[in-house]
Amino acid sequence: MLLLNFLSNHISTTWDGLNFTKTTLTKAAEYINSHGTPEQKQTCTDKSVESCKNKWNTFKSSYTQVVCIKNGSGLTWSDKDSAGISPETQHVWNDLVKANPSIAPFCNKGFIHFMKIESM
Length: 120
Hints:
The protein is mainly α. It has one domain (2-119). The protein has six helices and two strands. Strand 1 and strand 2 (19-20) form a beta hairpin. The protein is elongated, with a radius of gyration of 17 Å. The protein starts with a helix and ends with a helix. This is Myb/SANT-like domain-containing protein.
């Protein structure tokens, strides 16, 4: 993913909990717009500072949700395959979702960017 690769190389420009400056996000948008494949350039609109900021915030939110699953549930986790819910652990998952509804999408969906963000 172009955005994560760019931002991980510019981690020194963050402030206050991995928030990037507007200058860095502007450069990220310019980088993405100039490095997409020809197919992407034909089918996608140019990325803006706001779209880069929103995507980064979505990544951070997903990362935080997965940390919640990994650290507080006792469930197994695979960044590729998700929380590994089985009939035996369904009740644990249900209780966890009641306490934190934002994790619900990760029942059957992994988060392949976890390690990249964790390394940042």
